[in-house]
Amino acid sequence: MRRLLPPKDLGRRIQWLFLFMSLINVVTSLPRMISGGQATTAQRAAAAVAIVFLVGWWVRGYRRQRVPVWGLPLEALALGTLAVGQHDYVATLGMLFSSMSFRGLFGTWRQVAAFVVTAYAGTVSGVLLTAPGDLGPFLVQSMGVPALAVFTSLVALSTRRQEESNARERIFAQVGTAIGTTSAPEDIHRTAVDAALGMLGPDSAGWAAIQLPDGTTAAEAGVPGAAGQTAEFPLEADKRRYGKLVVHGTRAELRAAHNSLRALAGQIVLGLVNAGHAADLRHQAYHDALTGLANRALLREHLDRAVERARQGAPLAVLLIDLDGFKGVNDTHGHATGDFLLVSVAQRLREAVRGADTPARLGGDEFAVVLEGMLTAEDGSCVADRILAAIQAPLYSGPVDVTPRASIGLAIFDGHASSDALLHEADTAMYAAKRAGKGCVARLDATGRPVIHHANSVSVG
């Protein structure tokens, strides 16, 4: 019963109103037939059955929002039977107009035209069987039936288009909010295909997908395989291709939603461009501009998380690296050579560490590496020695030959109170390496004394 209450949206409210009027007209004809008229008992009984059928059929069509075409002959037969039971062309005329006002709201133009023809055929047959002399006045006074069908169809079409437009506006608002609050391309792709499918209409059996330039599908909504047509909307901006939005639906769905889908494609591109900018800004915020290594902020984030894991038993070590004599290189050969030296050292760090390690530039000529999985001090020392050897290989910058030197401080996590404590120990060890003659690795033993690692020897300071 709740489905038969007045709905909130305009289109369904209009349908409900005309359904109510048609039902009243049809149902109230029953007591008129019973109380008088020229119809026989059998004709009245048949008319009562026709009334029950029409009420159930129209209510079913309203609930399902469609009236099957195969039911048109049954409707025509029911209307003709009701006309026979009434034996009154004026009452039949009113019934024809009221039924047309409701039925004109459902179906395509062809389906509405088919109902007009079959309804005319049924009611005219009923009038001919009961009162052939009234056929002329009936036809004259029913000339407005086709116009009423056109009018109600136009009402249905305009309200449906308005509701679809409102629905697309709501989708655009939701898409704008969703895209504006994420910088993940995969989230933008998922939002886009859901929105594209929604623009085809709530009852669409179509599908939508985002295809990347390499031909892979990034996101998909709906079920492929339904009959229909496919429309493609390129996703491009500033000569950069992000792929294309592919939408499959009926010809009518694609035609109605074409402009909205094209606007959606533009919104997708804007979201992807902004996501790229956000990724660039995020990279700049956490990476050194010159070398591309992690900066101090990102190093601290990784180190803080690594310390938490180390407290649960995961091995951890930190290296602090300071280039020896870097100021002299800058003063002697210029900043271009100094920058070349820093970039080269950064590249050597990347190549010397494992994928799980985090190399970073702290600023100036200072670097750091977070090493996870270092079981012992000897393990850490071996990695530090390998990094030192990689850094200190000769460099060639045009006519200038430079041989970098570095001092490395090593700290192994052993219940340190914080990341700062671990960094402080590595910093202390690094300065011990400088005091020991530079170009070496140092760590602190359990008593706090520095242990120096040269290329082929170890000494305790």
UniProtKB/TrEMBL annotation:
<keyword id="KW-0472">Membrane</keyword>
<protein>
    <submittedName>
        <fullName>Diguanylate cyclase (GGDEF)-like protein</fullName>
    </submittedName>
</protein>
<feature type="transmembrane region" description="Helical">
    <location>
        <begin position="41"/>
        <end position="59"/>
    </location>
</feature>
<dbReference type="InterPro" id="IPR000160">
    <property type="entry name" value="GGDEF_dom"/>
</dbReference>
<feature type="transmembrane region" description="Helical">
    <location>
        <begin position="16"/>
        <end position="35"/>
    </location>
</feature>
<keyword id="KW-1133">Transmembrane helix</keyword>
<keyword id="KW-0812">Transmembrane</keyword>
<feature type="transmembrane region" description="Helical">
    <location>
        <begin position="112"/>
        <end position="132"/>
    </location>
</feature>
<feature type="transmembrane region" description="Helical">
    <location>
        <begin position="138"/>
        <end position="158"/>
    </location>
</feature>
<dbReference type="InterPro" id="IPR029787">
    <property type="entry name" value="Nucleotide_cyclase"/>
</dbReference>
<dbReference type="Pfam" id="PF00990">
    <property type="entry name" value="GGDEF"/>
</dbReference>
<dbReference type="InterPro" id="IPR052163">
    <property type="entry name" value="DGC-Regulatory_Protein"/>
</dbReference>
<feature type="domain" description="GGDEF">
    <location>
        <begin position="314"/>
        <end position="446"/>
    </location>
</feature>
<dbReference type="InterPro" id="IPR036259">
    <property type="entry name" value="MFS_trans_sf"/>
</dbReference>
<dbReference type="InterPro" id="IPR043128">
    <property type="entry name" value="Rev_trsase/Diguanyl_cyclase"/>
</dbReference>
